[in-house]
Design brief:
The structure holds three protein chains of three kinds.
Chain A lengths: L1 H10 L2 H19 L6 H15 L2 H9 L7 H17 L4 H25 L5 H20 L4 E2 L6 H5 L1 E2 L2 E2 H19 L1 H11 L1 H6 L4 H27 L1 E2 L7 H11 L11 H20 L4 H36 L1
Antiparallel strand pairs in A: 1-4, 2-3
Chain B lengths: L1 H22 L10 E5 L6 H16 L3 E5 L6 H13 L4 E4 L8 H9 L3 E5 L10 E4 L3 H15 L4 E7 L5 H14 L7 E8 L4 H14 L3 E6 L2 H13 L7 E4 L3 H9 L5 E4 L2 H17 L9 E3 L5 E7 L2 E5 L4 E4 L3 H4 L4
Parallel strand pairs in B: 1-2, 1-3, 3-4, 4-5, 5-13, 6-7, 6-8, 8-9
Antiparallel strand pairs in B: 10-14, 11-12, 12-13
Chain C lengths: L1 H34 L6 H26 L7 H18 L5 H24 L5 H20 L11 H8 L1 E2 L2 E2 H19 L1 H11 L1 H6 L4 H27 L10 H11 L11 H20 L4 H35 L1
Antiparallel strand pairs in C: 1-2
Helix pairs in contact in C: 1-12, 1-13, 2-7, 2-10, 2-11, 2-12, 3-4, 3-5, 3-10, 4-5, 4-10, 6-10, 7-8, 8-10, 11-12
Classes of the chains: A mainly alpha, B alpha/beta, C mainly alpha.
């Protein structure tokens, strides 16, 4: 009897939900559109949603620790604009890429610094302010102009393949593995989970909470820089208003990935599954020409119901437990 | 153990997606030709009308039409849609672009697959399209609005422009021509004091308009070459009872502006018919697909009820001109306000 | 003793914060007045208050939500939805009395808020997620009910527009409604048991539960109030701007949250005062109103707003630290 419930709880695990969802979406899309399962289409679908997914990885870590970073999309805009302006003023592309990454990392570092130096402030407030501020600086720099004039080879990032596999997918897999190892295989990862579960206790047990938070926010900045590279490459030009609204998409993916926003729980592989669930669902609906506003509604409902399910599941489980106890 | 099982499952699912993919080649449905149009965003009546015009044209010839727009007016939303259309093997894509240059890579990919790409209304740069459908000459639109405001304020006094976002390509091109027109000697007594940006947001347009009136108490005229801006300007003039003191013209939707034109706050304004813009794009797309035009200067084609149209030069690229903008005034607004 | 000191401390801090905000508002006003004498005219103050009314009404609801450790990202979408619903009714049935239509809009908003509350309290979904999902659903639904069309000025009845643009006793209705909302909120928060229970729920949910407060009910209540105010302001927004579009008020939720933060509402729950958010909304409104007035380039406006908010919250923390230190010193002596 006890074994039985354990099995059930295993099945109720979030990863399996997502796997089931992903299979369901694939079957649905494939049966609705004759084009869905073509290799090239699948690859271009993945290229379309992977650019913002880089930010999902550090965001998962930040949310696991009980924080949040709303400024990531503005960081993308600012670093992309910095890169664009540099190129326009004759800076070599390789240096411009470094400027982009440095700007993004600095943005994240500043967030981390404020959050750790002023612990009274919640990360939400700090990053809402920097969200407005960073994009504001991008506007000051570029005003109403677009920056373009990137060399042709730069477009390889967004559009190139290695063999038949898009470059962006390879880079994404590499970063996924790195973040997976960090969170699940290192002391730092265990500390991150510990901080999320109990901040105060982890301070007493000698974990350097400040260092971990600073690291996580800086990592978010860095990954926003990676997103800026791929996004800018895809458009071969940039404006201060790019990537608007990405922060909410990113947060939605993290949460769908089963990361608890109250901290302490989360797995990188679930989050990656969630990226594909949302991305492929959107693509599948797009390819059968469902109106984009209806897609918006579906994503909203998916978000609500997917988070509602575990709490319903928990309730069912506890009912079962009660019944079991009564049988005894 | 569980972790290993999970990971293998994850990989398996992803693999099913990718691998089963490569083997299958669905029979392309050869039947109907498919024509797509992509607008800037959803929920914009102007865009809905443009798409409706495109639809009318395509369906007149019995082809299949696909109307798409991202939920937000972003470039990356449009890129994703272009990818979806390439995947469906449409025959033509008509773009109303959110950015001149940023769609070029995606559209080049489409053209490489044999899809005919054209732009309408808000252009993509020459490299990303075969031909552009221009709703009206930007020079004409810019100049005519200055001429209108001159007539309203008797050629004397301060004027201001209330535009959309500071990035809007169309508006910026028109404003440049306005400034050009103002250099003519007949405007020596008129002064353009400010270009304000209401970002096409109601609240921001209203407060920008209020600030204009306060900063320039002697302001005589306002040109608002954008639908949200002109309606907001009309609202503020009405609210402050400045009818007759501050004159208003620009580009607006007849439905949005009907009440202000009827009350005389805005004596007249201009706009082209978005249905016609879409309709012309539809016929141009079909002509591109059946090969009767290639997008080169001098070619002509029949555009349904709009008659014969010719392709003319436009910088590095080519374009098709719809015609002069239409003047909306008190005498004709009633019949147009229910149309669009 | 220590508790008493802490309480006294908090009161001091609140006063300090509000004084600081007020001082800041005055300094900005003087600076702007020097640059542009039309700032402190009756007309401009009227415009300023009118344009801040909607923001300040929403801040009341958002404060209550933040007090219970929540957040509501769906308010702007909710405004668009309820406002659009009301506008469509005005367009199709112009004979219906405007107040009735407003009540319909308010009910629609309240219902959405109620669903938020239900998802958060009973469904145990985190507020940020539930309301984010709700935001998507409401935006999409607004498009669906409007079928992509706008409701334009000529389709609104005068009576409907008058709700927001008309005046009573020489004062614009929007301002009057905002004043009424603030008066009610002040009474509700400081003088009713439910108001105090909301704060108790926020400052310590566990002990609130133990002391017999139905925290679930409090959460549902605050989100319903938030929804109700969103519905109200949604209708007012459409009436004010005489136009309804499905992307109305896009992104407005961030302005409201920022106004609350400026007003000293803590996002970790339990604290927030009516006076604070009133000043916070005013400051935010003044920033929006004055930057175009003193010819600040529109490209600088975002950065200035962001910097002001950031500096305000940091200054607040520094003040708090300074005060704690001073009190500790005093105790040592």
């Amino acid at each position: 009897m006890i074994k039985n419930t354990n099995k059930l709880s295993f099945l109720l695990k979030w990863e399996w939900m997502l796997v089931a969802l992903l299979i369901l979406i694939n079957i649905m899309n494939a049966s609705l559109s004759p084009y869905y399962l073509e290799y090239n289409n699948m690859m271009s679908a993945i290229m379309a949603f992977l650019d913002r997914s880089f930010m999902v990885l550090p965001m998962a870590i930040i949310i696991i620790m009980g924080d949040i970073d709303i400024s990531v999309a503005s960081t993308v805009a600012l670093s992309s604009v910095m890169m664009g302006v540099s190129v326009q003023n004759g800076v070599p592309m390789t240096v411009a890429i470094l400027i982009c990454m440095a700007t993004a990392t600095l943005c994240g570092f500043i967030n981390g610094l404020i959050v750790t130096k002023f612990k009274e402030l919640s990360a939400a407030i700090v990053t809402i302010s920097t969200m407005i501020l960073y994009r504001g600086i991008a506007y000051i720099i570029l005003e109403d102009q677009a920056a373009s004039g990137f060399p042709l080879w730069f477009s390889i990032l967004g559009w190139g393949d290695i063999g038949t596999i898009p470059l962006i997918l390879i880079v994404f897999i590499a970063f996924s593995v790195i973040f997976w190892l960090i969170l699940h295989k290192t002391t730092a990862g265990r500390q991150i989970l510990a901080i999320g579960q109990n901040n105060t206790a982890s301070i007493y047990s000698g974990i350097n909470v400040d260092k971990m938070r600073l690291f996580a926010f800086t990592a978010a900045g860095f990954m926003a820089g990676i997103t800026a590279l791929f996004l800018t490459s895809k458009m071969a030009s940039t404006r201060p208003n790019i990537a608007i609204g990405y922060e909410l998409e990113v947060i939605a993916m993290v949460v769908l990935g089963g990361v608890s926003t109250s901290g302490g729980k989360g797995k990188i592989h679930s989050v990656i599954l969630a990226i594909f669930v949302i991305g492929l669902l959107k693509y599948g609906l797009g390819i059968i020409n469902i109106h984009s506003q209806i897609v918006t509604i579906i994503i909203g409902l998916l978000l609500i119901f997917s988070t509602l399910l575990p709490s319903i599941g928990q309730r069912v489980m506890s009912k079962l437990k009660i019944i079991r106890q009564m049988n005894l | 153990m569980k972790k290993i099982i999970t990971m293998t499952m994850v990989l398996l699912v992803l693999a099913t997606g990718f691998l089963s993919a490569s083997g299958q080649q669905p029979a392309a449905d050869e039947g109907k030709k498919k024509f797509a149009i992509v607008f800037k965003n959803t929920g914009n009546p102007y865009g809905e009308k443009e798409m409706a015009g495109y639809k009318i044209a395509i369906e007149e010839m019995g082809y299949e039409v696909i109307l798409k727009a991202p939920a937000q007016p972003t470039v990356d939303g449009q890129i994703a849609i272009i990818e979806e259309l390439i995947a469906q093997r449409v025959d033509a894509i008509a773009m109303v672009a959110n950015d001149v240059d940023a769609l070029n890579m995606a559209l080049a990919k489409a053209m490489k697959q044999g899809i005919k790409v054209l732009s309408l209304d808000s252009a993509v740069s020459a490299a990303g399209r075969l031909v552009h459908i221009n709703q009206a000459d930007p020079e004409l639109i810019g100049r005519v609005q200055i001429q209108a405001i001159k007539e309203m304020i008797n050629g004397e006094g301060q004027i201001a422009v209330l535009s959309a976002t500071s990035q809007a390509t169309n508006q910026n091109a028109w404003i440049e021509w306005m400034i050009e027109e103002l250099k003519e000697p007949e405007y020596s007594k008129m002064e353009l004091v400010k270009v304000a940006y209401g970002d096409d947001l109601r609240d921001k347009s209203v407060s920008e308009m209020e600030a204009l009136l306060k900063n320039y108490p002697n302001l005589k005229g306002v040109i608002a070459p954008t639908t949200v801006g002109i309606a907001a300007a009309g609202l503020v003039i009405e609210e402050k009872g400045l009818k007759g003191q501050v004159h208003l013209t620009g580009l607006g939707l007849p439905s949005e502006m009907a009440s202000y034109i009827e009350s005389g706050i805005c004596e007249w304004m201009y706009l082209w018919n978005p249905i016609d813009v879409g309709y012309l794009a539809g016929y141009a797309a079909m002509a591109l697909v059946d090969g009767s035009i290639t997008g080169a200067v001098g070619e002509t084609f029949e555009a349904g009820r709009l008659g014969k149209k010719e392709i003319i030069a436009d910088g590095n690229g080519t374009q098709i001109m719809l015609g002069a903008p239409f003047k909306f005034e008190a005498s004709n607004i009633a019949e147009w306000k229910t149309v669009y | 003793m220590e508790k008493l000191l802490k309480k006294k401390n908090n009161i001091q801090l609140d006063q300090f914060r509000e004084l600081g905000l007020l001082l800041f508002i005055i300094i900005i006003s003087i600076m702007v007045q020097i640059r542009n004498p039309s700032f402190l005219t009756g007309e401009n103050i009227n415009d300023l208050l009118k344009n801040t009314a909607i923001l300040s009404i929403l801040s009341v609801g958002m404060m209550l939500v933040l007090v219970t450790r929540g957040i509501d990202l769906s308010i702007a979408a909710n405004m668009a939805f309820s406002g659009m619903l009301a506008s469509i009714i005005v367009r199709d049935f112009p004979q219906i009395h405007p107040v009735l239509i407003m009540l319909i809009g308010i009910s629609a908003g309240t219902l959405s808020g109620f669903i938020n509350g239900l998802l958060i309290s009973k469904g145990k979904i985190l507020p940020i997620i539930a309301t984010l999902g709700m935001m998507y659903v409401l935006r999409g639904s607004t498009f669906l009910i409007s079928k992509g069309q706008w409701v334009s000025a000529y389709q609104f009845t005068d009576g409907f527009k008058k709700m927001a643009t008309g005046t009573n006793w020489g004062i614009n209705n929007l301002i009057l409604i905002a004043v009424a909302v603030y008066a009610l909120a002040y009474y509700f928060i400081n003088h009713t048991r439910t108001g105090r229970r909301i704060y108790a729920t926020g400052s310590n949910p566990d002990s609130a539960k133990i002391s017999g407060i139905n925290t679930d009910r409090m959460v549902i209540l605050v989100y319903s109030i938030m929804g109700m105010l969103s519905g109200l302001t949604g209708v007012l927004w459409m009436a004010r701007f005489a136009s309804a579009q499905s992307d109305s008020a896009m992104g407005y939720e961030m302005n409201v949250i920022a106004a609350c933060v400026l007003g000293g509402v803590s996002m970790s729950g339990g604290s927030g005062k009516v006076g604070g958010i009133l000043l916070g909304s005013l400051l935010f409104g003044i920033l929006n109103n004055t930057l175009p007035l003193i010819n600040v380039s529109p490209f600088w406006q975002n950065a200035i707003q962001g910097a002001v908010i950031l500096l305000a919250v940091i200054a607040n923390v520094l003040a708090k630290r300074g005060m704690t230190k001073r009190n500790l010193n005093r105790r040592d002596r």
